[in-house]
Design brief:
The chain is an alpha+beta fold. The chain is 32% helix and 34% strand. A four-stranded antiparallel beta sheet has the order 2-3-1-4. α1 packs antiparallel against α3.
């Protein structure tokens, strides 16, 4: 399996902007072939420990059956629409892909 974790830092760092992006993730990034796990949420403000990376507003967690499913997702029309409709709101995007044992 392949884990695809995406951390979005928004230009407008408000609860409303966070919820708008979360809704867009739910609309466009669920139910792709080979997707075995989907979750999205906002920064847990209550965890401000020194070890916590807090340079994001919204975290997207996807796990795919295999690399091929991930690669198909990257070029899927719904994924491309998500990017086109939301990229102007992003100050920074960090992506962490890893194979799962």
């Amino acid at each position: 399996m392949l884990a695809h974790m995406v951390y979005f830092t928004l230009k407008e760092q408000t609860p409303s902007a966070r919820q708008t992006l979360i809704a867009a993730c739910k609309k466009y990034l669920t139910d792709h072939p080979g997707l075995v796990y989907f979750s999205v949420g906002s920064l847990a403000d209550e965890y401000a420990r020194p070890v916590n990376d807090r340079e994001f507003d919204v975290a997207l967690h996807l796990v795919f059956d295999n690399v091929s499913a991930h690669d198909d997702y990257q070029i899927a029309p719904r994924h491309k629409t998500f990017i086109a409709e939301n990229k102007d709101t992003w100050a920074k995007v960090r992506v962490f892909d890893s194979h799962l044992a």
